[in-house]
Amino acid sequence: MSADLTAAFLELVTARRGHFRLESGHHGELWLELDSLFAEPRRIDPFVDALAAALAGYRAQVICGPLLGGAFLAQLLARSLGVEFCFTERAMTGDQHGLWRASYRLPPASHTRVRGRRVAIVDDVMSAGSALRGTDAALREHGAQPVVAAALLVLGTTGAHHFAECGVPVEAVAREQYALWLPASCPLCAAGVPLEDLATP
Known about the structure:
Layout: H1 3-10, E1 14-21, E2 27-33, H2 41-55, E3 62-66, H3 69-81, E4 84-92, E5 102-105, H4 111-114, E6 118-126, H5 130-141, E7 145-155, H6 158-165, E8 170-176, E9 180-181, H7 187-190, E10 196-197
Helix pairs in contact: 2-3
């Protein structure tokens, strides 16, 4: 994986440092603002093209991504690969302070479209992989066969390890080291750094 490619992707986003509770419930010290990533599609065309090339061999019939950024990416990839597109929507459930608080649902119109089909699940960035895990579960609930998980940028190893244990390969255009902590062992909590919850609807 080219360090230059990772640096080029990181130039497209704004990074904030602090103390953050992520959607997965893990704590981290880096947050990437991705809202404007797809505002000028030509800026990310080289990354989308690279990911499309990496996914081509999996023979996916559908590309699915979680709203918002994952769905935008899924639509671009589906167009590039000449396959169908669908998305999942997030619902926050469970203990506000626990892990894996988010679940994802597949809109009813997509239920029969994914059944029995090979699906690539994609997101703009994966760290713990909460959105991709939730999307994977929603697809399997409706009889789909997720064949690969992919992101433009994979941060750390937590999400990738989960999919490796499930036998689902992970593809990425860029990878970067990233520290995640369980709430009980977070050094920022121990230091009294104020916590910002990024998953609050």
